[in-house]
Amino acid sequence: MAFNIIVLAKQVPDTRNVGKDAMKADGTVNRAALPAIFNPEDLNALEQALEVKDRFPGTKITILTMGPGRAADILREGLFRGADDGVLLTDRAFAGADTLATSYALSMAIRKIGKFDLIFSGRQAIDGDTAQVGPQVAEKLNIPQITYAESIENIEEKSIRIKRRLDNGVEIVECPLPVLITVNGSARSCRPRNAKLLLKYKHAKTVTERQVQNLDYIDIYDSRPFLNLTEWSVADVEADPVQCGLSGSPTKVKKTENVVFQTKESKHISDSDFEIEELIKELLENHTIG
Amino acid sequence: MNNLFVYLEIEDGIVADVSLELLTKGRSLANQLGCKVEAIAAGINLEKVGEQIFPYGVDVLHVFDDERLAPYTTLPHTSILVKLFKEEQPQICLLGATIIGRDLGPRVSSSLGSGLTADCTSLEIGNHENKKEGKVYENLLYQIRPAFGGNIVANIVNPDHRPQMATVREGVMKKEIFDPFYKGETIKYDVNDYVNDKDLIVKIIDRHIEKSKVNIKNSPIIVSGGYGVGSKENFDLLYKLADLLGAEVGASRAAVDAGFAEHERQIGQTGVTVRPKVYIACGISGQIQHIAGMQESSIIISINNDPSAPINSIADYVITGEVENVIPKMIKYYKKNSK
Ligand SMILES: Cc1cc2nc3c(=O)[nH]c(=O)nc-3n(C[C@H](O)[C@H](O)[C@H](O)COP(=O)(O)OP(=O)(O)OC[C@H]3O[C@@H](n4cnc5c(N)ncnc54)[C@H](O)[C@@H]3O)c2cc1C
Ligand SMILES: Cc1cc2nc3c(=O)[nH]c(=O)nc-3n(C[C@H](O)[C@H](O)[C@H](O)COP(=O)(O)OP(=O)(O)OC[C@H]3O[C@@H](n4cnc5c(N)ncnc54)[C@H](O)[C@@H]3O)c2cc1C
């Protein structure tokens, strides 16, 4: 038994440690000031795929990402950790996509990849923060979805059993394949890069990267086909341009603003017994407490 | 036609708070728009749903009562909403940004080709101009939400597709009875017209749901601890003070991550949103994601050894000192002075 697996992974700015310089005066995010990383929960998703591959050799894992040219870093990162193949979906026509247009584009690329039994995505990306792309891709492909997955309890040729992490508990569900599974941050973290794979795929490149970098050892790409990362445009996946990018997005960002909080005039109190007792008395008198 | 719909989350026949909060907000938006509020109940034991929700100003309740709809699974609930929305053509649909709403909302929006805005913190009605096409849209739903880890807020509109769909977290909107005697109409459906066998392929094998023990959301006073509290033992001081004041204990994410407090107590963007009468922040620096969940507290008291901690700028009372020193004094003087 072996499976064909697609992992959806997004390159995101690291919004978890946003410093002052990361925000522009007009309230927009200066992406250039934030390191671009593999979306954290997509690494959890990749690990789930790798565990299936551990158990069923012959399983093939393809990483699919949509983004600008530099998102090819995500594909290499996935290959270093054990994925077999990478596809970069990139085209100016994809720019400005909301989750619906993103899902449409990803689903067209998945149709082009063709055979799949399982699709893993992260629960949520840390920049858009919507958790919508997974379920929407599933809908576009007309397959079921299992969200908030924490682990695979059992997998057979035609069905899978998944443990889901809910707010106040867990749920075990069973579903026929193919299915799309969104993986929670509480799932096992991803294994590190493998040194051998790092050596093997270090020079893996997309067509565009090869052209702009004008490499001298260009013939290695003919002798080692695994170094060629697939790169697809709107036309390559036979997508309808109107349904992609900004034009395919029902939601429009009207305005963004920096978050500012109303500052208050505060009363300052030291930690002396006297001042704390005065404070408590005041709070009791004006019925704030008690 | 073109009304505002709310999807109800129901467990054991009880409508979830988040749904009642959405009905409250929905009623006020509908008043502005001059449209009706309609609610959808899909599941079992729905007899008492009407009496729970009509006082919130619901005009029509759509009932889908069927064994196969509980516990919730994605596909049958999606099929119901998709077909019902094709028939009813709502202009707005609101769902909780919960485990269920965030599973169902995107699937429905994809099927209908309509937009969906996640985790809104504010919903308003306003106009929108598309300057390029010289087109003005009246009475759109402004869907305001944080993004980029809470560092920005975006106002999102959905000019051309219906329904305008949005999810909202529990606790973000206020829950308020509109009229205790309000009466709406109930429509019962034959679920077979909406759900087919293919929707039932996902099976729930086992389910453990524990009722939450802590109820910080409804507590009038919250004593909240951050990383600066230092240890689980020091958190006991917070529990002592909370006991005296009749308060609940909350926590920042850093305190939860450090194991000082349970996850259920986390306040903030990825935790619970609270608006108590009094919020006592102990050893909390006041990062944007924490403030997002407590800024509407009426009175904020900050205890911090750093006088320039960001939380101090939104506090009414700033106590500069060590948590482990200040709290015992507060306990002592509270005991002494409360009669
Ligand atoms: C300020 C702001 C607010 C926004 N708000 C909304 C909104 O409310 N509604 C809306 O529809 N759009 C919104 N968008 C657009 C949205 O962020 C983008 O469409 C984004 O590309 C996908 O959404 P996400 O980051 O939320 O991903 P999520 O839906 O959170 O991602 C879930 C998973 O899907 C997969 N995935 C997502 N994107 C890709 C990709 N490009 N390639 C491969 N896999 C991927 C990953 O596995 C990821 O873990 C907003 C954008 C901005 C800038
Ligand atoms: C996407 C995202 C979502 C997030 N969601 C949330 C969320 O929902 N809720 C949340 O809280 N955070 C959230 N965070 C994390 C947030 O950014 C902060 O890291 C966190 O709030 C910091 O917690 P803290 O104030 O307890 O810790 P710190 O920032 O470490 O602050 C500790 C404070 O204690 C003070 N202190 C130290 N010792 C003492 C002492 N002995 N006595 C008195 N004061 C002392 C220090 O001066 C400091 O001000 C989120 C982050 C991201 C990126």
TrEMBL record, chain A:
Keyword Transport: yes
Organism: Fermentimonas caenicola
Keywords: Electron transport, Transport
Any one GO molecular function term: electron transfer activity
Electron transfer flavoprotein alpha/beta-subunit N-terminal domain segment(s): 26-210
Superkingdom, natural source: Bacteria
SUPFAM superfamilies, per the entry: Adenine nucleotide alpha hydrolases-like
Keyword Transport found: yes
InterPro entries in UniProt: ETF_a/b_N, ETF_b, ETF_beta_N, Rossmann-like_a/b/a_fold
Stored Pfam families: ETF
Name assigned to this protein: Electron transfer flavoprotein subunit beta
CDD domains named among the record's database cross-references: ETF_beta
From TrEMBL, chain B:
GO biological process, one term: fatty acid beta-oxidation using acyl-CoA dehydrogenase
Cofactor: FAD
SMART domains: ETF
Keyword tags: Electron transport, FAD, Flavoprotein, Transport
Residue ranges of every copy of the Electron transfer flavoprotein alpha/beta-subunit N-terminal domain listed in the record: 4-204
Positions bound to FAD: 252-253, 266-270, 283-290, 304
Any Pfam family matching the protein: ETF_alpha
InterPro entries named in the record: DHS-like_NAD/FAD-binding_dom (IPR029035), ETF_a/b_N (IPR014730), ETF_a/FixB (IPR001308), ETF_alpha_N (IPR033947), ETF_asu_C (IPR014731), Rossmann-like_a/b/a_fold (IPR014729)
Family of the protein in this entry: Belongs to the ETF alpha-subunit/FixB family.
Name of the protein described by the UniProt record: Electron transfer flavoprotein subunit alpha
Species name: Fermentimonas caenicola
